[in-house]
Write a structure and sequence with these properties.
379 residues; Rossmann fold; eight-stranded mixed sheet; six-stranded parallel sheet; 14 helices; 20% strand
């Protein structure tokens, strides 16, 4: 069976949607032939394991949920290709919309995993464009889909309500985690030495450094935590999306710049070391599609402290497998961290139950759900 995937960016770029597609495509059985259409700085072909990738250079325009890339070469090849299923990732991008129309024209089943971004536009003009897109192009794209996949129940309910979709047309295929990768974590000694973390109790944040990730609330909470635990440190791992300098100013004003370490984006080995040296992970986001960091922390045997968001509450229960707090509330975040650091029995319970959650979300189980979707559509 030939599956053609489309996505705005793909490996080596790493993001939530990109990781989701890669983890599924690489695990499909040998009788599945997988290829990916994506966009980059130049036209080129390359391999990611068994996955054939074709990247197109195009031009960027404002479209749907933001800027998107359009390529004449991509459209030409999409019309020429003869896949058994077209599967686009991410709602609101031109490649998804064109794929839905071409799939209909060529009578090829079309699947879309929406990864729907519910963040609000920051300008009235963008908000109006988004509403216009949703009500015309977006609604048409979803109506043409043979199957719509959401990554959470929360996302599914939103899509069904907003676009008046048949409930049976939308299924949930959640994000997963590579459990095996986190079973035997590498020795973190080199990283402990690099960042001066010997005898420190480390809270780990992994994600993009941007305002909506809520790191500013973690810093404000840290100013209280450090009075209880003087050896408390925060290790921030992830690419700077234009907010790191602001966070450094906040840390300086709070007089905690010596306990906050910005490590940048780490390679896979160093990321595993970061999980190993940490005592727990913190995800103080104002919004999350799933919260991959939480699943990774659970698989690594590290407790989590996270915002009580609808998408996170779907799989994490307060004081059972994680500590959940009100988003944007630094005081409650500080109290949650202090409570966790002070209670070894609670920590052990969260670790044990968290591992059960991560096992349930192993990618080997998720890929079986995708295969069922493909088989149902074809037959």
């Amino acid at each position: 069976m030939k599956i053609l995937y489309l996505i705005q960016r793909f490996l080596p770029y790493i993001g939530g949607a990109e990781n989701h597609l890669h983890q599924i495509a690489r695990r499909l059985p040998s009788n599945y032939e997988t290829s990916v259409i994506t966009f980059g700085s130049q036209d080129k072909k390359y391999q990611v394991g068994k996955i054939s990738v074709r990247s197109y250079q195009g031009f960027r325009i404002h479209w749907g949920t933001g800027f998107t890339t359009i390529s004449h070469g991509m459209l030409k090849d999409l019309l020429r290709m003869k896949p058994d299923i077209i599967h686009a990732h991410t709602y609101g991008f031109a490649h998804t919309d064109f794929a839905s129309f071409i799939g209909k024209m060529k009578n090829v089943p079309f699947v879309v995993t929406t990864h729907y971004d519910r963040s609000k536009a920051d300008e009235i003009s963008k908000l109006l464009l988004r509403e216009l897109y949703d009500n015309v192009i977006g609604r048409m794209t979803l109506s043409l889909a043979n199957k719509i996949l959401a990554v959470t129940d929360y996302e599914k309910k939103f899509l069904v309500s907003k676009f008046s979709l048949n409930d049976e047309k939308v299924s949930v295929i959640p994000n997963g985690v590579e459990v095996d990768k986190f079973r035997n974590l590498p020795d973190p000694h080199s990283m402990i030495s690099r960042y001066g973390l010997k005898k420190s109790r480390v809270a780990l944040f992994v994600g993009r450094i941007e305002r909506k990730k809520g790191i500013q609330y973690l810093l404000r909470a840290a100013s209280k935590v450090v009075t209880e635990f003087p050896n408390f440190k925060i290790l921030v791992v992830g690419p700077d999306w234009g907010y790191q300098n602001e966070l450094k100013k906040i840390a300086k004003n709070l007089k905690i710049e010596n306990i906050v370490i910005f490590a940048g984006q780490l390679n896979e080995l160093d990321l595993l070391k970061a999980y190993n040296l940490s005592e727990f992970s913190v995800l103080p986001s104002l919004g999350e599609a799933t919260g991959l960091t939480i699943l990774e922390s659970m698989a690594a045997g590290r407790p989590i402290v996270a915002s009580r968001l609808p998408t996170i509450s779907e799989f994490s229960t307060h004081e059972k497998d994680g500590i959940l707090f009100e988003p944007g509330n630094s005081e409650k975040l500080a109290n949650s961290i202090i409570s966790l650091m002070s209670n070894q029995k609670l920590k052990e319970k969260l670790i044990q139950n968290g591992k059960i959650i991560s096992e349930q979300r192993d990618w080997s189980k998720i890929v079986k759900m995708i295969i069922d979707v493909y088989q149902t559509i074809i037959h």
